[in-house]
Task: structure prediction
Amino acid sequence: MLQGKTPRVTIQDVAALSGLSICTVSRALRNLPNVSEAAQTRVSGAAAKLGYKASSAASRLAGGSTGSVAIIAPTATAWFFAQAVEAAEEVFADSGYDTVLISLRNRPSLARKLFADLEGLSQRVDGVLLLNIALSEAEMAALAGSGLAVASVGMHDVPWDNVGIDNEDAAHAATSHLLGLGHWDVAMLAGSEIGEPSLVTANERLKGFERALDEHDLTVDPDLVIDAGSSIEGGRRAMTELIENRRMPSAIFAGCDETAFGALMAVRDLGLSTPKNVSIIGIDDHQMSWFLGLSTIAQPVADQGAFAANLLIERLHRSGLPNPPASHVLETKLVERRSTRRRR
Amino acid sequence: MLQGKTPRVTIQDVAALSGLSICTVSRALRNLPNVSEAAQTRVSGAAAKLGYKASSAASRLAGGSTGSVAIIAPTATAWFFAQAVEAAEEVFADSGYDTVLISLRNRPSLARKLFADLEGLSQRVDGVLLLNIALSEAEMAALAGSGLAVASVGMHDVPWDNVGIDNEDAAHAATSHLLGLGHWDVAMLAGSEIGEPSLVTANERLKGFERALDEHDLTVDPDLVIDAGSSIEGGRRAMTELIENRRMPSAIFAGCDETAFGALMAVRDLGLSTPKNVSIIGIDDHQMSWFLGLSTIAQPVADQGAFAANLLIERLHRSGLPNPPASHVLETKLVERRSTRRRR
DNA sequence: GCCAATTTTGTAAGCGCTTACACTCGACTT
DNA sequence: AAGTCGAGTGTAAGCGCTTACAAAATTGGC
Result:
């Protein structure tokens, strides 16, 4: 509090130093057209010398941009989201944007409330990056028409840029790996909890599973498709249920690595072991998967976050409309580890 | 873009509806003194009916608050920080604040740059929540005098509110647990990488380790204190080095659970097993520790984040100075699992 | 009941920036 | 050489809010 308050460098100061009007300075600083090169250099020189940084509040109020974007995630603690958030934050920070983190804490009601007040949101940020958010048609339309720039990760049929992986393909690859090892009795720990944001994702993975079986002329045994949500605990519960009350298959395809962890745990707790009694494969390549020797379909998580963030930034920079939304699909890769092996 | 742009509800509208001046409205809305109860109710009624929300940009520009706070973390991906960030974000959101996430991405240079421009920071947020940030004396002083409200987690000797655990105590408890099980040959996987933000933390834990040994009339064998940083990989490397090039102790105290994971992995990869050949204990109670059967000293991570966030909010609300900074210490608890057992 | 002291309320001046609009001035037409 | 055009620049009017300061309403003491 005793600090000598620096009086703040305003655009006026820059104008004075450069001998131009604040209007010209404003335009020069934002690289708008109709500014001579001479003016341009004088302005940037003066700004640099003064260490001038525009007040985001003033800029925003006057109709400019806020200089910040929001990342909206179902939760910030899950491995996937934490990775994606950090990668996106890096891109935003490097582009000079502040990142406002909004976690929905797995509560759909929070999402509804947030998207009901898009006006409020668009007042505070220039754009939003959606991570696996389940949106109603109406919400999508409202968001698309809100004036906010939008990009997303892991979403489908959205009217803005999206980046993700081919979930059906990944599930197909995982299942095929099992099938290729001679397992013909494969169960799937599917993720589809009510209200779960990644429901679509879960369904696609289920489809890939079914397709792989189909290609091997196998039919899906309903008893061997069990709901496991997408948490460790859910995986453990589902696996236990499977073994104790249904039937022990020779291989398991878990909808995601965390589910697989739970399955691994259940197997161990039941006195069995992997891959001796059962082969298990997941999807993600979670940080701990390597440690646990879990075979999996690796997906580039940080890349997805960074890629989507870059798309958003691009939209922000050229608000010119001639830019139809695109969907980018990133590659996944089978990673074989100890948890899967040939059926004997 | 086709949306019928709602013309935005301004303070003027509220003033008109309530039949008062914008000045009175402004004061009423912010619960300032010198507003009659009658006015107060009329204003809040009108505001509610109109769904009025103040423009943070305008408010900020006019000298008010920004309505947002920053969380500054060494990285957003580590388990500890992800937990703390989410917990804090929840508190902030519930108090109506936007949360700006700033990850230092483990790069000290980013921290230096950030704290060199406190003016810029304080222009965008009202307060900051520091998570385990290593600050120089000068930076601390500058931050304390910046006008920003500050609170922190896991820091020491800071001129603002802090919440954390007693690291020395936790380390002492972990080591004592091992000693109590008859292990007299205990190694420590210490965390102290250069530039590591939690250096102080690491040192305190080392001190607790030494104190426990001392109490049992044991001396610290320098060969058995090895640097492991605080990552899985670091733990693995350190443990391997220990076993292969130094000496195999009968028990290991790992500075944090992630280091312990690495140790567990190294032990396994060397054909040994836990707790048969070596007992291992960590600190944290990471989500996976339960899964891996790792004994540990549990610390309330989310609570620390939420607590500190609440302290920050409190500061923000009553900027009245009569409130000396306090340091809050949260309890830790020994959690015994499979990884530790009595020495035979 | 009247005047000073004390609320309560209103007026108006910005905060720092963007932007519609007006203006200047050479370069081109014809 | 007068007239047109457009690039480059400046003027000034806000954006929606906070906050001195002034004005009005209320209170209380004698």
